[in-house]
Each structure stands twice: as structure tokens, then as C-alpha cells.
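dude i think i finally got it to work??
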Amino acid sequence: HLILALLFYTIRDKKKALLAYQKVIELSPRHLLAHFYLASLLKEMGHFSQAILSYQHSYKLARRLRDKRRCLKAMGTLSLQIKKTRQGLGFLQEFLKLSPNDGRAREEIAQALTRQGLYKEALVQWQQLLKQNKGSARKARTHRNIGLLFEHIGQWRKSVESYRTAMKYTLQSHWLRKELNGRILQLHREKGKLAEFVNYIQKKKRKTNNQLSMLARLLDELGRDKEAQLAYRKALQANPSDSSLRQKYITLLEIANQGQV
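look at this
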């Protein structure tokens, strides 16, 4: 009957698959896989409370660690999905006790918590991942996600700090660096702290070509014309083919000349 249920499920005849799984359980009440597959099918069909009950039956029957983990994870993520937050967190905490070093699973749980708006709980998981993740790419992605969560909970300065830390683990040409620079700039705009951001760039002893261009444009935007003119000259030395940058510099000079007439 289990094979029959799987065949029905494969051809997307969910009603017949449901009846077949139930028949397996009727004949073999302790059939772990039948309970688990039934739970997954019930979840697909939108019968969420029944699905959790079936997952719980499967969990009680589980003897192997991997089976227990699979059940707990399924129950946790589904509980969060149907807004049973406390229940979901309980299942996921039990799962993490059994899998403290499973970075991939912890990341999936952090993402699930974020989707449900549980930002502080997700932050705890990403911060734990910082202790486990090795390699620049993973560290950069983790710090980026921590920064996004700080944005959600209203701690924008910590968000900026996390984004800047993430950038330390990326190459100058990496797409993530551009994204993070954009987020940092946007946060300073939103908080009315654009001048603070400009001052941060000015203090850097070594500036990238992109930072030189950004600095010139921002000084121009802030109306700090004399500083902007100098910044444009330096930026154009570093980016001689940037026609947009050159046009902005010319426009600034024309406005300055008109003011002197």
C-alpha cells in the first residue's frame, strides 16, 4: 500500500494517495514513513493541524537521530507558517539541540524565522552561525543577513556596522559590495545623516575608484561646491572614461561661473 500511495502521489492524485497512506497506517500503525509522508501530504493539501499531528506520530516512532531531526524541523517550520510561534520555536529548539553544528539547517531556520517576522529570534541564529561559518563568502553573507535583521528591528547603526564588516570579506569587484554600499548610503539618507557618511569616506586614507566617484557626487548634492570640485578632479583621474561623472563636474563649474558673473 505504501508503494501504491507513492504512485498516486507521483501522478498528483492526492485524494487516492491520502486514502492509501491511511490504509498503510491502519494495517501498520507503527509505520514511521507512512505517518511522515501522510503529514507532508496533509500539509500540501492545507490540513495543517492534522499534518502536525501526523508528524508528531512519526516523531514518537523515530529511533534514528536523522528521523527525529527531520520530524522536528518539519513540525517547527510548519508551526511558524501557521502562526503557532511558541510551538514552532519549541520544535526548532529541540531540533537544534540534536543538530548544534548543522550550519545549513540553522541557516534555513533563521530564514524561516525571518519570513515570519521573528527578527530577534532569527538574529540569534545568524550570530550563532558566525561562530561556525568558515570562509570569506559565508562570513560576508552572514554579516549581510545580520545587517538586514538589525534594519528590521530599528538598529540602523548596527546594521551599517554589519554591512561594513561583510564588505571586508568581499573583493572590490564583487556584486555584494555594490549592494552593501547602496544599503549603507540609503540608510544614511533615510536618517538624515548623509554628511556623516561623506565624512566617513573622506577620512579613509585609501579610497576605491567607486568611493572617489561617490564622494564627488555626494559633496555636490550637499552643496559643498569647492570640496566637490576637488573631489570630481580626483575621481576623474581615477575614472577618466566616466562620462556621467565628467558631465556633472562640467555642470558644477558652469553653475560656479554663473555665480561669479
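The mean pLDDT is 90.
im so relieved honestly
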